[in-house]
Amino acid sequence: MAEKNKFEKIDEQIEGYTLERQPGFERDMEPKPIYEAEYYKGSGKLTGKTAIITGGDSGIGRAVALLYAKEGADLVLAYLDEHKDAEDTKAMVETHGVKCELYPFDVKKKEECTALVDYTLEKFGKLNILVNHAGVQYPTTDFVSIPEEQVRETFETNIYGIIFLTQAALPHLGKGDSIINTTSITAYNGSPELMDYSATNGAITSLTRSLAGNLAKDGIRVNAVAPGPIYTPLIPASFDQEKVEKHGGTTPMGRRGQPSELGPSYVFLASADASYMTGQVIHVNGGDFMTT
């Protein structure tokens, strides 16, 4: 019997089109990502705050959750169906003395985004930080052959979900609160094999800037983080073993980044340290410089 893929890629049928299982499971990755910045010492920057983190079960979402917990925030970790990863993250978060709830949902569905916000308010009575991090990517080198189902899946997950969830959250956010979107280096450099994915990140970046201008009068800040090649479950779910092993090797730093190296940027943008920042994107990419 052939050895099972360690990442447990599961085929998902979407209107007759087969997509490999995304965004993936961290529990089966070898080697494991580095998700905790052990050097990081919290200083109460987010004490009394409540945050929703989509894609919060693993990868960058897990790293952000751990640092938010160290800074004193209560959390709702929203994710698709990676239950074991989510339970592991919840256990880690709660060691820091904060409260953490798990919420499996489909970010593509507006009614489920609304239900997530309602659940957060029911559990914690408030919402202060929204981290829109859920996303998928399906490599395709032939633009003409990109299936309609893939385009819809990618756009509905990556950008529709941000719009729906932010619409649900906004009535409950106020002065000093923060929205943080995850975009990508591909929004700036492009990607010949992630064309539809890159387009969604361009949309996320534009939405971040536009919404920031719209909400500035209300004192709600909207910013984003643009990761470069970061070792998360999405990588082995997207590429073959050879590409995974070479992932990030062409950056000036000569390596891929780890989720732990992203977390501090999300803390900064959520905290009062970034009180005079809105409509901005922090680039964490190992020196892959952006073209403006």
From TrEMBL:
<dbReference type="GO" id="GO:0052588">
    <property type="term" value="F:diacetyl reductase ((S)-acetoin forming) (NAD+) activity"/>
</dbReference>
<comment type="function">
    <text>Catalyzes the irreversible reduction of 2,3-butanediol to (S)-acetoin in the presence of NADH.</text>
</comment>
<dbReference type="InterPro" id="IPR002347">
    <property type="entry name" value="SDR_fam"/>
</dbReference>
<dbReference type="GO" id="GO:0008206">
    <property type="term" value="P:bile acid metabolic process"/>
</dbReference>
<keyword id="KW-0560">Oxidoreductase</keyword>
<dbReference type="InterPro" id="IPR036291">
    <property type="entry name" value="NAD(P)-bd_dom_sf"/>
</dbReference>
<dbReference type="Pfam" id="PF13561">
    <property type="entry name" value="adh_short_C2"/>
</dbReference>
<comment type="similarity">
    <text>Belongs to the short-chain dehydrogenases/reductases (SDR) family.</text>
</comment>
<protein>
    <recommendedName>
        <fullName>Diacetyl reductase [(S)-acetoin forming]</fullName>
        <ecNumber>1.1.1.304</ecNumber>
    </recommendedName>
</protein>
